[in-house]
DNA sequence: GCCCTCACG
DNA sequence: GACGTACGTGAGGGCT
């Protein structure tokens, strides 16, 4: 028994290679500033190690720990089977030099760093976990690698570091269908395409688990293979018995790896501040260095002399110190801040308000920051006095010792509108609208959220808390600590000013620091043009659209709601009658049990939660021969229309304006599209007749008309251009029906007198191509056999070979660069594109789609940005955007002028940046309501 | 808070 | 019958 490691000891085994690849693919390529050395994976690796080291781990805290790496690709398994891992691609060029650095990093963290020639990390992990168990201790393997799951059980478990999920015998059983002790048997049968373990052809995990459960173990199964009922399966096992046995030796981990160290030597040690900071500084990881110095300085005063103050990474970045923020309560101090702003030429600004709805909330204070650590809060709307309940509640009155709103805004207005002073904000559209409602139109603007979006779309979200943590290593004060949550939530106006200042001023401070962080990166990463031409100018344009809102006829909606309620009640009665019992039609779970359980209908598909799917396409199939599912479909449609639209929309009418004001997220969608929220006005029904009537409730003011202009087939046109497909381009130039043309090319039929069914199929394929088509997807969409769908796709690629070339190139770009770009330079990161397994398919399709969807989004953004100037002299306002459609409200007499002006802007929106080789065509309509205009 | 379902381009 | 699959969104209701 190894001395010192025994009962009560707990060993953590970190799968180093998994950490590296995860880090590499999760992060954009990053290089060391001074010499261009690629260090992205090292940075991610260090962040993960730091996160791991700082974690408390609770009761599972390790007494011993090690990071284990693969040493080289050739191991004893290649002697058993020379093709083992033969189809593993070489690691990317920019990852290779980072491997030794991750070893250095591990040592810098003072964690044992282990690799042994000729052995895979998995075998070392197996050996160490066996030893830990035998010594009477326990072990946790930090990895999500399924190959390690065979080790689970009896004192050994796994922790998925990404999901933070503990993997025990139950989870293993869920994955493999057998307990950990039989995992190798299942793997031997199923094989593994990633590691090139052959297994038995045609047998996957499901079948393998079933066989093992039936026969007990692999040896018994192979010995009694002749008894298997299914002839094909029996023959496979008999024919491939040797191959299966070899596979088992490949997947079975070796617990007897010779080790030249003891468990005791893996004892957990605190990192040495100097060593660790030295390494991080050398790598030039500013953020992490600061973060580590912070922590080690605070917790280990003995070593503060070295790191915290001398951390060279950020000499000019003061620590966050909420005590240093100033509360501005008099006009002299405010004037001093204004003078400081005029001095620096820029200011970070954040408004505090009474709520989240920027069309209803009132401002209660403004924060400013002029330099990191130099920030203030100017309260003017805080109240005091118990809001309380009952008769004796005092009406809240303004808290003392505040400037008035008028004083503050009058003093700031000249600065906020001064064209020589840059206003920096995080999600500035919000603050812009709050101030615009007080008569201040801020300009010019810098928005850190949009900078992050231009740099990092696809990698992570762009909220302030996320950015602060990621790029400044700083955790923001959660707003909940001030205003609470749920029923007892108060507004920011009720927060005592002395509590408000640290929170509020911190937001401005963080914003300023983020701006300093992002601004120099923009030209280096070549995203300045996108930010300047497609992101930043959207803020005032969208703010004006949102403030304009659209008139909604509440009476019309109310009448529809009533009619829907009646119809639903009637359908419910019929459904209960047909089911023979009452149940909640709106519960998919109950419905599934009725249809597939009680009534025993065929075709019940169970998802991963074990519930039957009752989605529309399932019900449609059932509806062919049963009444009940048909009624449910009707009920569902009406229920959706009522709850999501006719009911909910009435609640979104703003009492002050009598109109509905949506909010557009500029940085929400990965591709550059906008997203509309609260309410979502980008998914108002149109496809069904019933639904289209909801659009009649969106109306023009008296004397006005609604005008809708939309791009015709914009994504297909972009595809024709970027993939350079002569046949498609010519068809668009000639203005012929594109789907009919496709059908004609594919099925060799004339366009004249074409069967509508044929055209419909061609249309589905055209759309499918944009989405990264698969035979499965097309077959489901068209409800045709999969082989037939695959034939269509093959024919399509034969007729239009350029499309295949485009797809391949796009995926190749994504794999090499970690991102794809649109025609206008928008960058969409593609994390996960280099993964293997089913997840890779999705990433592939997303990468193919992104440049097309993204370019369309860029084009309409360009049009929207130019629109205000183009329609300035017309009595018209732009109200809504629905991806390829713009909706305006215009005086009746100016409808034609508006259509002409807006169409010209939209059709020419790509120019002069891009001269498309196909024309952009815009269709237009006008009417009293949206249904008529569209 | 997650899942299912469904509205749109 | 190894797996799961068209791309991008937001919202409401059920259920735990």
From TrEMBL:
Gene Ontology biological process terms, A to Z: DNA-templated DNA replication; double-strand break repair
Domain DNA-directed DNA polymerase family A palm stretches: 691-894
Catalyzed chemical reaction(s): DNA(n) + a 2'-deoxyribonucleoside 5'-triphosphate = DNA(n+1) + diphosphate
Entry's Gene Ontology molecular function annotations: 3'-5' exonuclease activity; 5'-3' exonuclease activity; DNA binding; DNA-directed DNA polymerase activity
Purpose of the protein: In addition to polymerase activity, this DNA polymerase exhibits 3'-5' and 5'-3' exonuclease activity.
EC number: 2.7.7.7
Quaternary structure annotation from Swiss-Prot or TrEMBL: Single-chain monomer with multiple functions.
Alphabetic keyword roster: DNA damage, DNA repair, DNA replication, DNA-binding, DNA-directed DNA polymerase, Exonuclease, Hydrolase, Nuclease, Nucleotidyltransferase, Transferase
Enzyme class: transferase
Membrane-spanning residues: none
5'-3' exonuclease domain boundaries: 6-269
Domain 3'-5' exonuclease: 325-523
Name of this chain's protein: DNA polymerase I
Family: Belongs to the DNA polymerase type-A family.
InterPro entries assigned to the protein according to its UniProt record, in alphabetical order: 3'-5'_exonuclease_dom, 5-3_exonucl_a-hlix_arch_N, 5-3_exonuclease, 5-3_exonuclease_C_sf, DNA-dir_DNA_pol_A_CS, DNA-dir_DNA_pol_A_palm_dom, DNA/RNA_pol_sf, DNA_polI_H3TH
């Amino acid at each position: 028994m190894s001395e010192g490691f025994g009962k009560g000891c707990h060993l953590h085994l970190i799968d180093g290679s998994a950490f590296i690849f995860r880090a590499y693919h999760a992060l954009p390529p990053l290089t060391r500033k001074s010499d261009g050395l690629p260090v992205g994976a090292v940075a991610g690796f260090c962040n993960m190690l730091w996160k791991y080291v700082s974690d408390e781990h609770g009761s599972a805290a390790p007494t011993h720990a090690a990071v284990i790496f693969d040493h080289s690709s050739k191991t004893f398994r290649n002697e058993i089977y020379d093709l083992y891992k033969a189809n593993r691609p070489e690691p990317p060029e920019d990852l290779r030099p980072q491997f030794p650095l991750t070893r250095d990093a591990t040592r810098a963290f003072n964690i044992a760093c282990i690799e042994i020639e000729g052995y895979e990390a998995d075998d070392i992990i197996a050996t160490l976990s066996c030893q830990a168990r035998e010594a009477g201790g326990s072990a946790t393997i930090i990895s999500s690698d399924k190959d390690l799951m065979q080790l689970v059980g009896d004192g050994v478990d796994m922790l998925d570091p990404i999901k933070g999920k503990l993997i025990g015998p139950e989870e293993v059983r869920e994955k493999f269908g057998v307990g950990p002790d039989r995992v190798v048997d299942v793997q031997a049968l199923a094989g593994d395409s990633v590691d090139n373990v052959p297994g038995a052809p045609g047998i996957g995990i499901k079948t393998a688990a079933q066989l093992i459960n039936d026969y007990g173990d692999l040896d018994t199964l192979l010995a009694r293979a002749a008894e298997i009922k299914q002839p094909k399966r029996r023959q496979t096992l008999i024919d491939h018995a040797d191959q299966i046995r070899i596979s088992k030796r490949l997947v079975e981990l070796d617990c007897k790896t010779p080790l030249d160290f003891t468990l005791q030597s893996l004892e957990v040690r605190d990192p040495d501040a100097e060593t660790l900071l030295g390494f991080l500084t050398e790598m030039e990881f500013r953020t992490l260095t600061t973060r580590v110095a912070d922590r080690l300085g605070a917790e280990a005063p003995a070593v503060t002399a070295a790191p915290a103050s001398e951390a060279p990474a950020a000499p000019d970045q003061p620590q966050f110190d909420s005590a240093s923020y100033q509360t501005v309560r008099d006009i002299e101090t405010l004037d001093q801040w204004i003078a400081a702003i005029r001095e620096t030429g820029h200011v970070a600004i954040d408004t505090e308000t009474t709520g989240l709805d920027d069309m209803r909330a009132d401002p209660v204070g403004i924060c400013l920051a002029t330099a990191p650590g130099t920030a203030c809060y100017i309260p003017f709307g805080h109240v005091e006095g118990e809001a309380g309940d009952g008769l004796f509640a005092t009406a809240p009155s303004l808290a003392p010792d505040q400037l008035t709103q008028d004083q503050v805004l009058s003093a700031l207005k000249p600065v906020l509108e001064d064209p020589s002073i840059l206003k920096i904000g995080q999600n500035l559209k919000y603050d812009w609208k709050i101030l615009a409602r007080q008569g201040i139109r801020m300009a010019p603007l810098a928005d850190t959220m949009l900078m992050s979006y231009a740099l990092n779309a696809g990698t992570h979200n762009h909220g302030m808390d996320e950015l602060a943590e990621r790029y400044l290593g700083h955790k923001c004060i959660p707003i909940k600590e001030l205003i609470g949550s749920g029923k007892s939530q108060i507004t920011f106006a009720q927060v005592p000013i002395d509590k408000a200042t640290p929170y509020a001023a911190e937001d401005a401070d963080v914003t300023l620091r983020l701006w300093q962080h992002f601004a120099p990166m923009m030209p280096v990463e070549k995203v300045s043009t996108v930010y300047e031409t497609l992101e930043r100018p959207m803020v005032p344009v969208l703010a004006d659209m949102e403030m304009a809102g659209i008139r909604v006829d509440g009476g019309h909606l109310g009448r529809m709601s009533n009619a829907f309620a009646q119809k639903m009640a009637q359908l419910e009665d019929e459904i209960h009658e047909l089911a023979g019992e009452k149940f909640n039609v709106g519960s998919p779970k109950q419905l599934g049990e009725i249809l597939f359980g009680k009534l025993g209908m065929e075709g019940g598909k169970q998802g991963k939660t074990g519930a039957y799917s009752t989605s529309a396409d399932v019900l449609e199939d059932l509806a062919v021969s049963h009444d009940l599912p048909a009624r449910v479909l009707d009920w569902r449609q009406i229920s959706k229309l009522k709850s999501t639209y006719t009911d909910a929309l009435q609640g979104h009418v703003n009492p002050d304006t009598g109109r509905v004001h949506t909010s557009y997220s500029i940085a929400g969608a990965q591709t550059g599209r906008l997203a509309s929220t609260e309410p979502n006005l980008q998914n108002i029904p149109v496809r069904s007749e019933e639904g289209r009537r909801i659009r009649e409730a969106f109306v023009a003011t008296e004397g006005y008309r609604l005008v809708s202009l939309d791009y015709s087939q914009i994504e297909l046109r972009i595809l024709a251009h970027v993939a350079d497909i002569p046949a498609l381009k010519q068809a668009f130039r000639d203005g012929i029906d594109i789907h009919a043309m496709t059908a004609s090319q594919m099925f060799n039929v004339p366009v004249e007198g074409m069967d509508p069914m044929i055209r419909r199929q061609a249309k589905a394929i055209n759309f499918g191509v944009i989405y990264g088509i698969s035979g499965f997807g097309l077959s489901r969409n068209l409800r045709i056999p999969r082989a037939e769908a695959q034939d269509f796709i093959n024919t399509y690629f034969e007729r239009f070979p350029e499309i295949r070339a485009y797809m391949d190139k796009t995926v190749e770009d994504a794999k090499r660069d970690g991102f794809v770009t649109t025609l206008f330079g928008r960058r969409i990161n593609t994390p996960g594109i280099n993964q293997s397994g089913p997840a890779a398919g999705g990433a592939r399709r997303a990468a193919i789609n992104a440049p097309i969807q993204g370019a369309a989004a860029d084009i309409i953004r360009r049009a929207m940005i130019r629109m205000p100037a183009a329609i300035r002299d017309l009595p018209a306002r732009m109200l809504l955007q629905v991806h390829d459609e713009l909706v305006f409200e215009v005086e009746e007499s100016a409808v034609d002028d508006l259509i002409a002006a807006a169409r010209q802007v939209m059709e020419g929106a790509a120019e002069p940046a891009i001269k498309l080789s196909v024309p952009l065509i815009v269709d237009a309509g006008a009417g009293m309501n949206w249904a008529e205009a569209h």
